[in-house]
Amino acid sequence: VGVYPTGTLVELTSGEVGIVVKENPGKRLRPQVLVILDPDKQQRADFTEMDLAAATQAGSQNIEIAKTLEPGAFGLDPETLYI
To answer: 36 phi and psi, to 5 degrees?
Structure first.
């Protein structure tokens, strides 16, 4: 079992919320995430897949997972959205 298994709901340091869709074997703390909510916690019109191993935000700071969220946080259910 990885640090952030597929299907884990996470909040990123950018304020966005997403679901882990794939683990990065070489960088276990930086999985690929399907971003669902923008920093204002509003649903995005298009879900974007982000590879945290390569993701940066303005100012060249790496985007990381700030915390994991319980299924159902912000009304999101990973099973109905992705899995």
So the answer is: -110, -40
